Amino acid sequence: MLKTALHLGLFSLLCMGLPCLAASQAIQVIQTDIQPSLETLATDFVRQMVSRAGSLAAVSVSFQNISVLPPESQEAVQNAIFTGFRNAGVRLANAEGAQARVDITFSEDWRGFLWIATIDVNGNKKVVMKKVARPEHTTNARAPMLTIRKSAVWQQDTPILDFYQDNQTLALLQPDVISIFANDSGVWRPRYTLAITHPQPWPRDLRGRLVVKNSQLTAFLPGTRCSGSISPPSLDCRASDDPWQLDQGSLVAFYSPRRNFFTGILAGPSAGASVIPFFSAAAWQSGDSHQWLFTGTDGRTRLYQYDLSAPAAIFNGWGSNLAAVHSNCASGWQTLLTSPGDSVRPDSVQAVEVLGREALPVSAPLDLAGPVQALWTSGKNSEIANGVLQSTSTGQYEAFTLTVNCGR
Amino acid sequence: MKLSRLQSIAAASLLIALATTAGASSRPRYGGTVRILLHDRFSSLDPMGDEDHPAARDRVTALLYDTLTEVDSEGRVHPRLASSWSAEANNRIWLFNLRLANFQDGSLVTAPDVVSSLTHLSQGWKVTAIDKQSIRIEVPVPIAHMPELLALPRFAVVKRGSDNTSTGSGPYKISEWQPGERVLLSANEDYWGGRPYPDAIEFQLGASLRDQLLERQLGRYSAAELTVDQLRPLEQSNQNLQLSRPSDLLVLLFLHPDNQVASSRQARKPVDARVREALSNAINRAAINNVILQKRGIPASGILPQWLTGYEFLFPGGTNLDRAKELRSEAAGLVIINPIALAYDFSDPVAKLVAERIAVDAREAGIVVQPFGEAHIANKSARAALNADAVLLRLPLQSLQPAVALAAALDDLGLSDPTAAPLNAGRLEDVFELEGRTLADFRVIPVAHVSQAVWLNSTVHNWLQAPTGEWKLDQVWSEGGK
Predict the structure, then answer these.
(1) Do A359 and B1 count as a contact with CB atoms less than 8 A apart?
(2) Where in chain B is the domain with CATH 3.10.105.10?
(3) Where in chain B is the domain with CATH 3.40.190.10?
(4) Residue B245 in contact with residue B465, Cβ under 8 Å?
(5) What is the ipTM of this complex?
(6) Could you tell me which of B156, B181, B176 has the C-alpha nearest to residue B166?
(7) Mind listing the pLDDT tens digit for each residue in A118-134?
């Protein structure tokens, strides 16, 4: 029983990573353990040794560990290799009684473990190597006040700019297409793609916004607006400097067509007002008080209260993505913020509440697997933030949702 | 839960967090000029030319020219000028589809342009255009890692004019070029991958960091390339430094192979294999690493570092003075042992110290090594005419894929052998065996793997240094832009 438990521990220790990453799935399924077990890895390693040596009847085996593999794991791997030899009909012997000497080293490269066997048959040496994925790091959950809940929606190799999701449909806005998926018993299955045409190359740090209402699609992209429908499928794109809808209707703003920010000129309910150029914004109403936050391209975030004539407070050191989320907790409105730092490194998201002219954290930072590429307020009542990140470890883009839950 | 209860717990931590991270932001900003100090000089911007400091040149040409593919800092291959690819005939035939992209002169990048560019490399490959936007590469032996190989700077797609001018399709264009002194690049507004964030990138070549520090002028630069002997004072003043993994290979290369036919014009004969082995045993790699390289490297026994392959430890590389003396004595009974003339890059102060240390170690084993500085040791054609027995080279690690990295290193060493090319090595064991064969006759003696270092101004963002030391400046931006 103990052995089984140890092996299960090693199963997760050794078998995460390369073998289980495979390719991006066209159809997302609930992740299942498809990694080889420790026994399978050891059996395969022994099989390679036997194949390379020609035949092995009796061997003496020695081990050394020059990797970070902990001693207890090393012992389990050794046992699995011994079992592999026995199952292959190779007798384990001491040096005198052995036909071959096998020196096994648990080494590692920058990506994972490497098992190396040097097989010495009468001075004729052969080397066998087996790559074994290293486990992913796990972080201890911190004790939050409110909790940010993250739910993965979709992963793929190519960029995702924004997405829309309801019970029946998932629509992914990508640089050159909108992909539509249908819910088939809990699995998103691709239905069709709608091509996005654009006359100019996209700017770097490409951003886009997808708005879906009653099956009608609107995609806002730099200098381009696409309109169409999910059913029947259609999409028509044209050059446009129409303002983008940032949230569920309270924030509408013009976007710089060759850059990655909003110009600061507002439209919609705030038409006529302007603020400094910004990357993202949040707006909410608490009682009779309107509040806005804008993450400026100068690295400062400005809080406006009641009107947009002058900022009530300026915050330094915030990330450039934020989204307002409505919840049943505390004041009812939280703003989700990304962390400051370079956009090539893993990000985190933290919830803050604005009280007076101060911003107070109300959750622990939620560590993410990569930099946040997009964060938009979503849901019928703004109760969700739709996010996209690019994993620094896998390079994959992940669409996810964030909600704020009360309590720890 | 009431918000008021949270306030007292959280306010202090937020205020601290905000105070310590002021001014930072994660989304890139456009505009401004990124100014970079490079340690070495180079005289040409041709990515395929023979050059004294090709690694320095490649830092610039990577911004001017596109390759068909690229490899990210995690070793993953991505499309660049090629939008997709596939292999046939057991990796002997590769098909690449090109994306719609323009050269900086406004003309479309077409399959014939790519064919012309790759054929220029004359690797025995048969490169043909299938149609306007796709090419076919047929190679004599299977190449399993063709996409990784084509990401190397030497496979950049270059359009050559009748006047031998070269044009690329990269994210920057040349605005000013003073060979050996300065390059000013400006953003390519029409780059297929989107206009870069900075308006310009300026490289200052052969810059003395010491002078800049003395003049307290470093602040006007975004980044400065450093050698390991320059790190300590900057670390002591808490400057922002990035170090790669120990990636560059410091290696002794004996110039004359054992089978070289002696001629009257050939002033130098091959150094006896036993003497070479004796020298390898005499070198105190640990001392070189600890003292001269200030622990910014690791002793090397292989061409590729342990962190990349996981197998370097299998190659012997320790100091064994007794064995060195024994081998030297054996050789002395059979051949005349002449002093070994060892050339090193005279512009690299660390190379000078390492060469001198090797001479000291060799003397312990009764071998005379005479180090001297030379200007062109990395230049393969110039190296052939060098009046030296051996050279001390510093070779950058060019790929995170071991087979490709070994192939590139052997090419840099001038040891490419088409019949034993590591590129058709499908398994890591094959790469190991080929590397072992290369090291077996001690013509190549690895000394150390050394980290690359760069100083970064706090105003520069998204600077990525790959584990190889290669700079990924694709997403870089600087504060103070628009």
Answers:
(1) no
(2) 248-450
(3) 28-65+170-244+452-482
(4) no
(5) 0.84
(6) B156
(7) 999 988 999 999 999 87
